[in-house]
Design a protein that fits this description.
The protein is an alpha/beta fold. It is 37% helix and 11% strand. It is built from eight helices and five strands, in the order βαβαβααβααβαα.
Length: 230
Amino acid sequence: MGLKKAVVLVSGGLDSTTCLAIAKYQGFELYGLTLHYGQRHLAELQAARRVAKAYGVQKHLELKVPLTAFGGSALTDKKIKVPKSRSLQEMSGAIPPTYVPARNTVFLSLGLAWAEVLGAEDLFIGVNALDYSGYPDCRPEFVRAFEKLAKLATQKGVEGKWRFKIHTPLIRMSKAEIIRTGRKLKVNYGLTHSCYDPLPKGRPCGRCDSCLLRAKGFQEAGWRDPLVHK
């Protein structure tokens, strides 16, 4: 009997890479899904390819989902500025302009569709509800609601033949805990990319929310970030 299949959402970021490493450690056959949704840079997609190759995914599927048609986010509309140099208190306030409307709903829907075709009952996503920027679609209640929806919205679900589960192993971890977990699994964070607004050659800006949370995580974990100390 072969390994159980799992679809893993792979963005190329620190969290999704750790999530992929956990899925591999748990013995799943990996199917990586990366979405080109019109993000303002290609560094994220390039990192996703590096990570998928490093983990030997059975198949790495890239889909174009042009959320730029809607706009409404600093990540899909260059007219909207990416917030910089914010304090942790500011990050924990209102939902920031880097929130992409319904992004994780769209991503999980596509992952669900592929999982049903593959016959995979498991889908991994690296959402986190502690060290994050206040996105509503990173919360446990959102994930639980989507999992319930998935069982109602699929053929295998309504036929009772499918025990579909969304795995969120990082959801209650701090960024430091995520990094420590990744280190135990020998994750090479030098392959990853986290910055919302990278410099022209792809280097992290060091000032956006994602960069600041990443830096805080490495500092608290007691490790040097390989992206910063190349």
